[in-house]
Amino acid sequence: MTSQKTTQTMKPATAAKKLGVYLQATPAQFQEGVVSRTELNALQADPPQWLQDLRRDGPHPRPVVAARLGVSIAGLARGGVEEALTTAQIDELRQENPPWLERERATQAEVRKEAARIKEKHAERAADQAR
User: Fold this and answer.
1) Alpha-carbon gap, residue 73 to 66, rounded angstroms
2) Cβ contacts of 27 within 8 Å, gap of 6 or more
3) Residue 24 burial (CB < 10 Å; 0-12/13-18/19+)?
4) pTM of the model
5) Alpha-carbon distance 114 to 33, whole Å?
6) Do 51 and 24 contact (CB within 8 A), yes or no?
7) What pLDDT is stored for residue 3 in this prediction?
8) How many CA atoms lie within 13 A of 8 on its CB side?
9) CA distance 45 to 19
10) In the Cβ-directed half-sphere of 24, how many Cα atoms lie within 13 Å?
11) Low-confidence ranges of the chain (pLDDT < 70)
């Protein structure tokens, strides 16, 4: 008995998330179809021009916007940023550096510092237990 491998596919929203792009900005053909694992790997290995343009200029999904601004997704929401932003809009926000962005960056820095402290504490505990 031979088992035939089925092609693993995903919804366009999942593929867009894995590619780090805003689904509504992708071509209609991408939005309306399904994407196989092979197609996704090909898009990642050799991105077509539309994908290169989206990654460079946007509009970018919230996780990408948050990362580029150095804040959390929740921080974006607290700052009133609910929609996808282009690279130019992100750069403009960085230039303006509104009070909410300063606050959220400081909060994010504290979160990272605390995460590093906890990780170090766990590493020390593991080292003590190994002795």
Assistant:
1) 6
2) 50
3) exposed
4) 0.75
5) 43
6) no
7) 57
8) 6
9) 11
10) 8
11) 1-5
